[in-house]
Design a protein that fits this description.
The complex is a heterodimer. Chain A is an alpha+beta fold. Helix content of chain A is about 20%, strand content about 40%. Chain A is built from ten helices and 19 strands. In chain A, the strands form four sheets. In chain A, strands 1, 2, 3, 4, 5, 6 and 7 form a seven-stranded mixed beta sheet that branches. In chain A, helix 4 packs parallel to helix 5. Chain A starts with 7 loop residues before the first helix and ends with a strand. Among the domains of chain B are: about 80 residues, no CATH class; about 230 residues, no CATH class. In chain B, the strands form four sheets. In chain B, strands 1, 2, 3, 4, 5, 6 and 7 form a seven-stranded mixed beta sheet that branches. In chain B, strands 12-11-10-15-22-21 form a six-stranded mixed beta sheet. A five-stranded mixed beta barrel of chain B has the order 9-16-17-19-23. The chains are: A alpha+beta, B alpha+beta. Chains A and B meet through strand 2, strand 3, helix 2, helix 4 and strand 5 of A and strand 2, strand 3, helix 2, helix 3 and strand 7 of B.
Chain lengths: ~450, ~450
Amino acid sequence: MSTFNTNTALMAEQVLDLVMSAGATGDLIIDEGETISLKAREGELEEYKVSSSRIFGLRVIKDGHIGTAYSEAVDADALKSLVGQALNNASFVKVESHENILPNSNQLVTNDELLCPKEQVSIDQKIQMALEIESKLNAKDKVKNVPYNGVQDIFSQRHIFSSAGLNALTRSRMCASYAYALVEDGEKTAMQGTSQVSRLFSGLNASIVIDKTYEKCIGLLDGKPIPSKHYDVIFDKECQVSVFGVFSMMFSGKTAKDGINPMRDKVGSLIADSRLTIYDHPLNGDGFGYHLFDAEGTATQKSKLVVEGCLQTLIHNSATASYFDTNTTGHASRGPKSTLGVNLHQVEIAQGSEDLLTLQSGEYLEVTDLAGLHSGANAISGNFSFGASGYLCKNGERIQAVRGITVAGNFYEMLNKIAMIGNQQSWDEGRSALMPSIRFSDVAISG
Amino acid sequence: MLNSQIAESVIDHALSLGADFAELFVEKNETNVVSTLSNEVQSVESGINFGIGLRLVYGTKVLYGYTNKADLDELLRIASVLAAKDLRDPVNTTKSFNFNQITDIHPARKILSIDAEIESKVAYLMAADRAARAAGEKISQTRGSCMQREQRVEIFNSDGLHTNDGRNYIRANLTAIASDGGEQATGSWNDGGLLGWEIEAGINPQQTGEAAARQALVNLTAKPCPSGRMPVIIGNGFGGVIFHEACGHLLETTSVAKKASVFHDQMGEMIASSIVNAVDDGTMANEWGSINIDDEGMPTQRTQLIKDGQLTNFLVDRIGAQQTGFARSGSGRRESYKFAPASRMRNTFIEPGDANFDDMVASIDRGIYASHMGGGSVQPGTGEFNFSVTEGYYIENGKIQYPVKAATLISTGPKVLKEISMIGRDFSLACGMCGSISGAVPTTVGQATLKVDDILVGGNA
């Protein structure tokens, strides 16, 4: 982070002085980042990308009207224009009496040792890993090529200032490696991939990406559709986290306020199988969803969202909390380019009681790949229909690779069709959520 | 936006470090978004993106860096960092910049830097909201937005190219939500183009509101979709997303050069039914996916991809041309200065045929009419794709029976192209955003209503 501008606090002060001199309040997010990204092709480095970026995002509130503006240009004229634009935008927007700048003058800094550890690592070591992943995968039987692969080292910093005196700083680092390989055997082809993340480059292991990617590709090479009917389904960790993520709007106080959250009137009601308990746990430092504070500088905490099937709360920022006459849950979200919203930080589903043997008893479909997640789901109605691949299994053994099928249903109904919950939690590849395996019953599969 | 002397110094420096080719892509991008929730303005957001992307090419290796700073020292630093592992004696020298003034074939009048016209946009969205809610008491809410963007780019390269372009984007959309007890369904409509707010004269808020409401109300009554393999009629306009996903991505040299496309070795071969003619055309006046020049500075063109079922061209950028030997097609595009360019689609469509819609329906014993499509994705290496259907109907015994919900179409690109058996006359285009290796770029899809004989329909009936 050596190239980051040391005048950040001074510039923020200048911006917020302009805001306050216009009779408004406001907060300013300054995001800065540095990234190295490497890709390999046929044993050579194909792409080497370095970047540094900075963006200012301002929210102003004047007479109950809220306006936002952002800028990547940060000279004095640009910053003056930023304030002018935000104030002008606010003049067109309805009065929002529930949204205010919190009277929060805390000075907050996250722990660099936890989130942004330093290490001695050369660019040559990173290049070496990119080349190793691509070339070793390429050398394996039936691998035609590895068209998508890479190693990344990403530093990011977010600084939040407000006219109330908030000064909150978080720095984080993420190292990642990934590969997607194309395997071919006669007319049959398959392309699959995996990724890995760590706070330290030394936490990455090329062999894991190589072996997992190859295993996934070869496993699905002989895949074919299965007869259309309703099956028990176990999503693998990536798919399960993705499906819960697609429907995470169900917890949003913002969409409830906007009238489109189907769970709006269901707090305190049973919405899921009584064995299902869901938390948001932003303070688990093992995950990349760690947040010490939210976008308003409110301290986060472990929140109970669903306990034994009963919806406990929606997630709130100060504005949605005010609207529903409750307290913020520390879930305010805002980027430099966006308005105030809410977001889950790091979902955790409590472990169930079933051991692996029981969870995998009898016939079930293990879904290892879902396609069309962004287009095949309607979070308002809960309806979904995704392309899928995986394995037809019996008593834990994969008996047939399956491709060219769809999995369809209604997510909110599916929460009540849980057959079993496993007794072991694990992270997804991106370490964004911690969940046990869940076996859903009676899921419509078309093949 | 960038002083030519600074550009020349940076490119000279890059070539002195042994690069075969060096390029600067300078971008300033202003955006304004007006959002409404029913009859209230929810937010107005605006901002400026500015940055410079520096690309160095050694052989076919691409080194790319970007910064928000336009000063010489920072750009020289990035060039040095990028080239540090590839230093060699110079192999090329900079040619003098020869400024190329482009011909603007997509003129715009009411552009963002003149006036954001926020009052007028709010009035349009409010009128669309009123029209939607007047369409039925079950319309509980609308969400509208109007996005306007003015992108200015300037490109310098070591071949002596110096050019610039201004691109003006406008897009308005409305989503209606219909509610009946605990059931909710959505419908949407959008318009857009490569022009300014003068688009207002050609779009009608009454039609926008009614169209979104109609779809939401249809979907509210939809039944679970039957599943299995069956013939499918795919509607015009955004139905063209099927070609975009199933074929277009596989014809980009980004995947062809890596042999990550099933079509990489099929130039000149029959890859589609003989009634299929497909085009990618950046020259269509003021269309959403059009450009004057691509993001490598090459004038855009119309590229015939498939002629009578035969593969005739790929979409080729500079690096793709180097890697495959095919001529550049003015298809090098990127979301912003943060991305190196890659071969991408522009306005991509299947040309119209002469089939009659009623004949298509009558030819089906059991199938689906997917009148409006949502998004989808494709795996280039295998051609496997999926699309969601946002408005669909079940067909039985040659007649449309009832609306269906939560349907997905699954197949592979090579297979579905050969299964197209009838193409109608009702050609239209629709705009969308396409995400790929060089970010999200505006693209148009299009077709007339067409029939695919065999496709897997996923539903939960």
